[in-house]
Amino acid sequence: MDNAEKIFIEVVYALPEEQVLLTLDVDQGTTVEQAVKLSGILEKYSDIDLSKNKLGIFGKVTKTDEVLRDKDRIEIYRPLIADPKESRRKRAEKKEAKKK
Question: 12-26: string of b/e by CB count within 10 Å (b at 16+)?
């Protein structure tokens, strides 16, 4: 029997048309990367690449070797489809052009 103390964590991933929330009990000392792999989400969503997708815990970007704490929520972020600075600049230019 496994005597290692377990912690409760969640792994979340959101697509425009679907949101996934997986709950897991993992051994204390489990890293972010280990938990993501244990969750099985990589098999279900082939677009997730841990070498490219950023990961976070409760909205703060984290590294794959970060050790999890009880009740942590791992978030898998999708790449941005547009640069936010560039989008704001274009909106400002359109707004300025309408004034003229």
Answer: bbeeeeeeeebebeb
